[in-house]
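Sample entry was shown:

___
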Amino acid sequence: MDSADFELHGLVSSVPVAELEEDEPRCAICRAILTEAWLDDGDFYCEACMKELVEESACEAKAFAKKKCELTCKLPEYDTTREFKCTAEEYEAGAKESYTENSFRCHCRHHCTNYDQLIHELRRDDLGDRIYYRAIRARIDELLDDAGCSPVPYI
């Protein structure tokens, strides 16, 4: 996983200064007057300072994930003869059970790794936690790939 996995978009939102209730909002780090504000925990940042904050946190998160993420048991084998997928109508009606490569990989992530333990206390409204979540998810996926749980392309 490289720095590109931690682009600002999707992690934190920018807001045009006109939408803020501040007269002249300034970056909490470099004190530049902002034309666009990147928000985190009640503070405003310029894009450059926010990128630096994200990069610092991403480095810590990747190191944490590399150290803490692990397989907790042997992975089961994927059985192509059992494969089935509910239809869109069945899914809408509440029948969400399927046996596909994606559902199998999801099962392995939740039942054969310590993924759930590591993300349990992460908050979706916290930038640092979102960065840690991405690093943990990427590392768990890497471990599953290395163990032979074939990657499923995201659509």
